[in-house]
Amino acid sequence: MPISFTVIDLFILVLSLVALRWFAKRAPLPLPPGPKGWPLIGNLLDMPNDDFAKTYTEWARMYGSIVYANVAGQPLVILSDIEVANELLDKKSAIYSDRPVLEMAGELAGFKNWTGFLTYGPRWKESRKFMHHAIGTRESLAEFSSLFESANRKLMKEALCDPENLERHIRYSAGTIITRIAYGYQAEEKDDPIIALAESAMRNFTQLRNPGTHLVDFIPLLKYVPPWFPGAGFKRMASEAKQLLQENADKPFHLTMQEMARGKAPASLVSKNMKDSSLTEAEKDCLKWAASSLYSGGADTTVGALSIFFFAMTHYPEVQRKAQEEIDRVVGSDRLPTLADRGKSPYISALLNEVYRWRPVVSTAFPHRTTTADTYKGYYIPKGTIIVPNLWQMTHDPHVYSNPDVFSPERFLEKDGKVAERNPRACVFGFGRRICPGLQFTDVTVWLGIAMALSVFQISKVDEESTEAIPYGPKASVFTGRPQPFKCRLNPRSTKAKELILELS
Asked: Which residues face 374 on adjacent strands?
């Protein structure tokens, strides 16, 4: 829906823009091309509220791989080419690794404490170090192999018994893994209070992060308006979200501290790092928020990717058949796949790559921000410019991917002299120093979920005559690009497969 302002809102907006932007310096070089804006407000009214990738992709086709927009005085650059993104965000990462300030979600509601949203500096580096040691490499995740396998076996059982709520089961499975790795916490079989708390925080973030919903994101001075002031309901909303977020960070952290005091805390991100008695109070606080950040970085991406996988299988049965032939050949029918089978399953790995590419979980990567002015190919990029990588266009560029709208794992396999197409991991997990710290976690969780599902289920449409359209991509959610809710049929492939599913984990 379009952004709507009251007369008072527009009056404040105009005054603020005049005061803050009237004396802005002229750029020494041309700005990148982009849509023509209005005086003062620039391209504010052109900005989408939900389907970002669609708008940004249209702009890329009109203006090129680097597009400039002015959003009420805030410079914005959209990158729609992987090479350009790498040249700026990776090779020039020293000046392209900051994050924009999110006034509503970040400053007022407190989500600025999560690792992914920290401004570039010492606290961010410390937080990334904590996370890297826990989930940053396959080696660091290896000690949790049995956890991954147990959680996914339970997921298969829940999916068989209650396929109507498949996405809910995927989310709960991811939550049990993350809370165990972060805190050593053993989640309850159903309705766990710690997972429920984390889910509530994620829902708040998704709502508050929605661009265009809150005027304070465009006029930061409004954050100083007292909560009782007419029209300041956003302050009360943010305060409630901040209180819940603080509880989400504190409660599981304190539970781990209690278990450590009793000498019974399992290995986890928190327990491993808290054994270092030299940590300062500031470092302990950073660790607490790094642990809380794992859920935001792992749960939604895992849920999105696995949901897209099940959706794709209902539309591409031939791909499913080929993948199952490989699983049967590598694993057989007497057991479920394990992580040890991964290196022997090139088609499943290619299928995972295609899940990432076909419907990227985030259609636009979380934005970067420049810390100094820069120039690129004759264009001027001002200091403080928000940089948005348009992942949808990068993963659907017909010059890079043949028939990009078709789900085809074969594109990532070298065969008969054909060179494999570019691995989407080059962009879907972010760029430069801001690459997603949960990359390895998501990769392991999703690969195992895909392999197990293919091993035991025949996945199909509920209504084989359905002509349900495959959604464009990100429209279902601002923050993630998984498809709209859908139903699928999950039938055990054999009697033995059903027995494997129903075995106690």
From this structure: 381
Q: In sequence order, which residues have a C-beta less than 8 Å from that of residue 61 and are 6 or more positions away?
A: none
- What's the mean pLDDT in 241-259? 96
For residue 110, give every residue at least 6 positions away whose Cβ sits within 8 Å of its Cβ, in sequence order, or none: 241, 242, 245, 246
Residue 24 has pLDDT above 50, yes or no: no
Between CA 444 and CA 341 the distance in angstroms is: 12
Give pLDDT tens digits for 330-368. Answer: 999 999 999 999 999 999 999 999 999 999 988 888 899
440 close to 177: Cβ distance less than 8 angstroms? no
Q: At what angle do helices 233-261 and 281-315 cross, to 10 degrees?
A: 100
In a 13 Å sphere around the CA of 300, the CA atoms on its Cβ side amount to 24
In single-letter form, the type of residue at position 35 comes to P
How many whole angstroms from its chain centre is CA 178?
Answer: 15
Helix spans in 112-268 (H): 122-135, 138-142, 145-161, 166-183, 193-209, 233-261
Residues facing residue 488 across a β-bridge: 461
Of 87 and 225, more confident: 87
What six digits make up the tokens of 267? Answer: 């290995």
68 and 98 Cβ atoms separated by less than 8 Å: no
Q: Is the dihedral of CA 469, 470, 475, 480 positive or negative?
A: positive
Mean pLDDT of 466-488: 54
- Cα separation, 77 vs 386, in Å, equals 6
Query: Which two structure tokens, joined as six digits, stand for 295?
Result: 């859920």
For the stretch 156-172, pLDDT in tens is: 999 999 999 999 999 99
Nearest partner of 364 among 397, 390, 396, judged by Cα: 390
CA distance 293 to 287: 10
Query: What's the sign of the alpha-carbon dihedral 471, 475, 476, 482?
Result: positive
Q: Kindly give the pairing relationship between strand 368-369 and strand 386-389.
A: antiparallel
What's the per-residue H, E or C state across 357-400?
A: HHCCCCCECCCEECCCCEEECCEEECCCCEEEEEHHHHHCCCCC
Confidence of residue 300 (pLDDT cuts 50, 70, 90): confident
Q: CA distances (Å), 103 to each of 6, 210, 213, 240, in order?
A: 20, 12, 12, 15
Structure tokens at 172: 């709960």
Confidence tier at 12 by pLDDT (50, 70, 90):
low
Amino acid type, 268 = S
* Alpha carbons 312 and 481: distance in angstroms, whole number: 14
